[in-house]
Design goal:
alpha+beta; four-stranded antiparallel beta sheet; monooxygenase
């Protein structure tokens, strides 16, 4: 078995910037995969090409709640991602097959800092 890369949070950035918070509960079809995993992986690669994309954090609770927070330098980056053809197609398919429900929140980040324990 290959070693698993460590999970790290997105580093703090100089504010202001924006956080797009996507919370969802997936259908049984999505949990069985139904193409969800490969589509999510592809979108994760494509969003990195969007000007102003700063990174993404994601978690999934045992109870079924998934939370993804994508960070963008500006609203133009968020709009470019919203309009991206592959993202729009995945959204439509997700509404039809992969999500029981979801909510999207866009927030302006006005303060940001981080911490990392010193090694050694």
């Amino acid at each position: 078995m290959a070693p698993v890369a460590p999970v790290l949070p997105v580093a703090a950035h100089e504010p202001p910037y924006y956080a797009v918070v996507f919370t969802s509960v997936r259908t049984e079809e999505a949990e069985r995969d139904g193409g969800y995993g490969s589509t999510a992986e592809r979108l994760g690669e494509l969003v990195q090409e969007i000007p102003g994309f700063l990174g993404e954090d994601s978690a999934h609770t045992p109870g079924g709640l998934a939370v993804t927070v994508a960070y963008f330098r500006d609203l133009a980056g968020i709009e470019a991602w919203r309009q991206h053809a592959a993202h729009r197609e995945a959204k439509e398919h997700g509404q039809a097959h992969w999500y029981e429900r979801y909510a999207l929140h866009i927030a302006k980040v006005e303060h940001s800092h981080g911490f990392q324990r010193a090694r050694g």
